[in-house]
Amino acid sequence: MAGEFMNDEIFDVGLDYADTNGTRIDITSQVATDYSEATTNGTYSLGNKTLNTAATVDGATDGRRVIVPAITDGSVTTTATATHWALTDGSSILVATGPLSSSQAVTSGNTFTLDAISITHRDAT
Length: 125
What we know:
This protein is α+β, with helices and mostly antiparallel strands. The chain is built from 2 helices and 9 strands, in the order αβαββββββββ.
């Protein structure tokens, strides 16, 4: 509803979880629905990179967001086409997932790059 207000802390709780626990990004061949799909080589994972996300900040247009930094040296482990990304805690939890801006053919043994990813919780409209 128009005119409603929610303090940024309401948005930040979930995003802070992503910031604190999002330590590994995988490129995947399709959307992952759990940790195993996101990180198991030969299931959906085609490569990965350990990382640190940025603190929760204002969204680009509204809301709040966490930014996964750009990657220039991710390790490709399977030859296929990457269509999605998956952010995990590196041990058991799928934190977030989404589509890549465009699919990317990758070859095992090479590196992959990704632009920064913004995980945004938009304001209600």
